TrEMBL record:
GO molecular function: oxidoreductase activity
Domain of life: Bacteria
Keywords, alphabetical: Cytochrome c-type biogenesis, Disulfide bond, Redox-active center, Signal-anchor, Transmembrane
Locations listed in the record: Cell envelope
Major localization listed first in the record, in broad terms: other
Name this protein carries in UniProt: Membrane protein
Domain Thioredoxin: 48-216
The organism of origin for this protein: Mycolicibacterium poriferae
Classification of source organism: Bacteria, Bacillati, Actinomycetota, Actinomycetes, Mycobacteriales
Amino acid sequence: MSVSARWSIVAMVVLVALGAALWAELGDDPGAGRAGSSASDTVSARDRRDADTAEALVAPRARADLDPCPGPGEGAGPERLRGIVLECAGDGAPVDVARALAGRTVVLNLWAYWCGPCADELPAMAEYQRRMGPEVTVLTVHQDENESAALLQLAELGVHLPTLQDGRRLIAAALRVPNVMPATVVLRPDGSVAEILPRSFATADEIAAAVDPQIGESR
């Protein structure tokens, strides 16, 4: 066999191996081909840093003491969010996002630990939730891979709202939220988007003035 023929065979083997590796990677990623995923999918490790292992998050989770993420509601939930499974930052449990929001009036607050206006807004979101009670579910979505920093930030702020860890920003992409933070999305019980608010709020009164008119029919 000639040298050129041997090199051709080697190149072909390498290409086949690379293709198999890429196929396996896509198969393990719930974000790829999301339409075919299900609630049984596991949370992708890419939503958080490698350093944020279950063991490393024990202490930050204890300090944050977050409220539980909502369980499955009534119905399939927002169509755009179906198939997205994220980690509940408070306890590490997987959350089928669409099913968790189904049948509820929801205020999604998208933020990151390094965002100054987000830190100013989170206590106002917590106060708004306190005022609204069970009529509205305020759910925060942390959009950075550093889950430990998010938990420590919430602990420092004294904010215990349920939080989803979304390092890949899947929710923002699915709902077509502008690339700004903080941003707030108001969802009706039928899963439709009532409003997208790409702005920050300083007080619960400001939140109520912007959100309440959007949810008036569902209250």
